[in-house]
């Protein structure tokens, strides 16, 4: 029997969250301002979504477009306030100007969220060396709670990163240092990518625009999410 694949959907507000849950989403990523590729949502938005749905919520910790931590003290204060509001899963990830993981920023936020589970987001796809990034984070005591990498395998999206994703899943299955966190595939992900990815053992998928037939100005559509749920629930074909 195939284990149920995880489907994570981006939600901007309660309407999105309710539709995503109705369509079969297992988890939501909560963000604001997709024009900046997703920033920390207001605490009131988190509270409203938490009241509206029962699925797990991962809340973005990101103050500005790009991969620099920016005003870290302010971001830590916002993370602390979200924790006080009840948030217990997060998404974050920062790079130094030379493309290495910003361990100081990651450690500061990880201390604030105090052992909560979190995703290192697509900053990995802009890293100078993604293997080195994984190993540095694995060796960093301050990165406690990291259990997922959200990645397309390449900066240009899943279409360009398929081979990398498959190779990294193999390294994860063999227990290589730095590869223990789950791979959450997202970034230009299409239904047509699923057969190859599922056959390779990848079992977690993240969609944003694909859940919104009307674009980012429109809400999440439960039927669109349901189509992804059905595709992920279908038997995995061998030998793809």
In words, what does this structure look like?
Helices cover 37% and strands 15% of the residues. The chain has helices at 14-23, 43-52, 72-85, 103-113, 130-138, 158-173, 194-199, 222-233; strands spanning 6-11, 27-30, 57-60, 89-92, 117-120, 146-151, 182-185, 204-207. The mean pLDDT is 96. The chain has an 8-stranded parallel β-sheet with strand order 7-6-5-4-3-2-1-8, with helices on one face. Helix 1 (14-23) runs parallel beside helix 2 (43-52), helix 1 (14-23) packs parallel to helix 8 and helix 3 (72-85) runs parallel beside helix 4. It is built from 8 helices and 8 strands. The protein is α/β, with parallel strands linked by helices and 240 residues long. It starts with 5 loop residues before the first strand and ends in a 7-residue tail after the last helix. The radius of gyration is 17 Å and the shape is globular.
């Amino acid at each position: 029997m195939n284990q149920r694949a995880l489907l994570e959907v981006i939600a901007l507000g309660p309407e999105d969250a309710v539709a995503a849950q109705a369509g079969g989403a297992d988890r939501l990523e909560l963000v604001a301002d997709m024009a900046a590729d997703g920033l920390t949502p207001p605490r009131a938005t988190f509270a409203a979504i938490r009241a509206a749905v029962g699925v797990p919520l991962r809340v973005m910790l990101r103050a500005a477009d790009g991969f620099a931590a920016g005003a870290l003290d302010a971001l830590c204060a916002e993370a602390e306030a979200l924790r006080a509001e009840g948030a217990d899963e997060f998404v974050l990830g920062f790079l130094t100007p030379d493309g290495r993981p910003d361990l100081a920023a990651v450690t500061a936020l990880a201390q604030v969220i105090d052992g909560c589970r979190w995703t290192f987001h697509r900053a990995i796809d802009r890293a100078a060396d993604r293997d080195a990034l994984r190993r540095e984070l694995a060796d960093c005591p301050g990165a406690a709670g990291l259990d997922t990498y959200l990645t397309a395998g390449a900066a240009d999206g899943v279409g360009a990163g398929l081979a990398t994703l498959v190779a990294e899943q193999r390294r994860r299955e063999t227990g290589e240092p730095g590869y223990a966190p789950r791979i959450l595939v997202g970034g230009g992900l299409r239904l047509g990518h699923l057969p190859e990815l599922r056959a390779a053992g990848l079992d977690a998928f993240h969609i944003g625009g694909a859940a919104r037939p009307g674009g980012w100005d429109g809400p999440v559509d439960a039927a669109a999410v349901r189509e992804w749920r059905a595709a992920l629930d279908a038997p995995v074909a061998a030998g793809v």
